[in-house]
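Hey, can you fold this one?
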Amino acid sequence: MPAHAVFYKKLSSKNTRYFVGIMICVLLVVANILASQQFNPHMYGYMEGKREDQLSYLKHIWGTPLFSYEINTLKAEQNKELLAEWKKIQEQNNRHISVMEEASQTHPYSPELYYNLFLLYLENGNKTKAQEYLQKAHQIDPSI
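Sure. Predicted structure:
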């Protein structure tokens, strides 16, 4: 085999590996860009001022540092209606929690009751108390 054919064969295999490596990098960058563009579906409604989406978004970010920032922004914008609705939802959740905790005293072996308490505490942002009730529900019914 002539020397130039051997050189071309080695060069061709190196180019192929180089090309495949670059294509993998490009695919990973594209996948990263696409994955980072996914927003909370309520975010667009929040920006447009839709009440249901604003409340759903606040529920979604409850318990995170972003929540206090959003509440302070609403206070600065003097969006009293949305703040009043949010406070009403929190008071309603607290009433449901107190009723369910009373019911858990009379029905201590109800996994559904403990699971619902888990969901309410989670929605209110109290993750430690929510985890406590999830553990109780799981002790009664391991399939939860």
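Residues 39-67 form one domain. Let me know if you want another pass with a different chain boundary.
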